[in-house]
Amino acid sequence: MACTCSHEPAPQKPNSHFRTALWIALLINITMFVVELIGGAYAHSSSLWADSLDFFGDAVNYGISLAVLGASLYWRATVALLKGLTMALFGFVVMGKVAYAYMKGIPPEAITMGIIGVLALIANVISALVLYAFRDGDSNMKSVWLCSRNDAIGNIAVILAAVGVFGTGSMLPDIIVAVIMATLGLTAGYQVIKSALKERQQTQHVHG
């Protein structure tokens, strides 16, 4: 729907529930970033290590989202655009990590993968649940919901990969999961970028 009004929508009033949800998600993601970074390096798991980078990226995104609560739609959309580009970039980084892991050829340690994968899944399910109510908001709210949703899906895949590695002794399940995570990052990034560009276009006559 084209915007024909002469002024952009009024700045969004800070939502205390959304702010609280963001703080919870931020703390969870910082904690899991450290856990998966150490565990992924110990287990030689590219999917765990990639997921730790995802936790770190999400923590930064949640922090940015907290900073722009109450800002105008234009600036919220601008931040969402940057987050969408970051999500897509993460997808390409993971693809590169997959190629490196494949060339190195060291199977990951399945037990560590599984334990940390379960912890990460619990953490992301909690994050997704507290952010679920805001999934239909503006591009900024939508982006934080997509981050948590994708992380939860990715963690289920990590657990399945750990089972696969344990049963076969092959690194292939770990590689497959990393590719899935990269694809999720690319598609979610595209959705957020598309939504943010649309919102920026609606207000560009004010900030042009």
Automatic annotation (TrEMBL):
Pfam hit, one: Cation_efflux
Main location group: membrane
GO biological processes: zinc ion transport
GO CC annotation terms, alphabetical: membrane
GO MF annotation: an example: monoatomic cation transmembrane transporter activity
Residues annotated as domain Cation efflux protein transmembrane: 22-198
InterPro entries with a match to the protein in the record: Cation_efflux_TM, Cation_efflux_TMD_sf
Spans traversing the lipid bilayer: 21-43, 55-75, 82-103, 109-132, 152-169, 175-193
Keywords carried by this UniProt record: Membrane, Transmembrane, Transmembrane helix
Localization of this protein: Membrane
Membrane topology: Multi-pass membrane protein
Keyword Lyase: no
Protein name as catalogued: Cation transporter
The organism of origin for this protein: Acinetobacter shaoyimingii
Lineage: Bacteria, Pseudomonadati, Pseudomonadota, Gammaproteobacteria, Moraxellales
